[in-house]
């Protein structure tokens, strides 16, 4: 009799468990509104998030290898996310589902990928996005932890890709939002290692030995010598609250 009772109890438990699984399977997932991320050239960044609920945020980034001035009269071939150094800031909300698309332009010479430190899990999307020129990759992640995170290319040699300009930031705002400020700026430090001396004229190449020795030719904010001076100087009202999102890509070089 005891055995029969145990069997009946087990059978009921199994039936209840099966019903629970069926109910969970039948429950539809909430459909999130889809937002295409606004990407702006630094020192600008996307506006603060005012919504109070999660969304699906679509981010379209391009990898662009571009030649431009690193200093007056000095040119350099930068490897970039979105054509800017640093790469354009991504701004999402805690709980958002982020669908990131990475396109390696067909005129580029090298494979690239992206590793976002806001991604929970190894590699930050690097394995999913390693692509040759002319190809596109995408992956989806959920922004679980609020904070300001770096993203960068993680193609070997990783240090070389970062030192050529492949870095940027992703801001995951907390659910409750951030305190309002008068203005926001996006500033990021980077180190560049050229085979010519500081401000040597003409097109300069990357110097791997200087990078190994950690002796940069340039330590810059926003990818160019004097990028935030003169007509490009950052301005704000006196006594107003201004937020500057600034993170170095590596420790300052020793002197």
Describe the protein's topology.
Layout: H1 2-26, E1 34-36, E2 56-71, E3 74-81, E4 87-93, E5 97-104, E6 115-116, E7 136-142, E8 147-152, H2 158-163, E9 167-173, E10 183-192, E11 202-204, H3 208-212, E12 218-221, E13 242-248
Parallel strand pairs: 1-2, 2-5, 3-11, 4-9, 10-13
Antiparallel strand pairs: 2-3, 5-7, 6-8, 8-9, 10-12
Structure characterization notes:
With 255 residues, the protein is of the alpha/beta class. It contains three helices and 13 strands. Strands 1, 2, 3, 5, 7 and 11 form a six-stranded mixed sheet that branches. The longest helix has 25 residues.
In short:
With 255 residues, the chain is an alpha/beta fold. It contains three helices and 13 strands; from the N terminus they run H-E-E-E-E-E-E-E-E-H-E-E-E-H-E-E.
How is the biggest beta sheet arranged? 6 strands, mixed
- N-C termini distance: 85 Å
Percent of residues in beta strands? Answer: 25-35%
Low-confidence stretches are 1-27, 250-255
From the spread of the alpha carbons, the general shape counts as globular
Number of strands: 13
Output the number of helix runs: 3
Task: Describe this protein with a few key phrases.
about 260 residues, alpha/beta, 6-stranded mixed beta sheet, 4-stranded mixed beta sheet, 3 helices, about 15% helix, about 35% strand, disordered C terminus
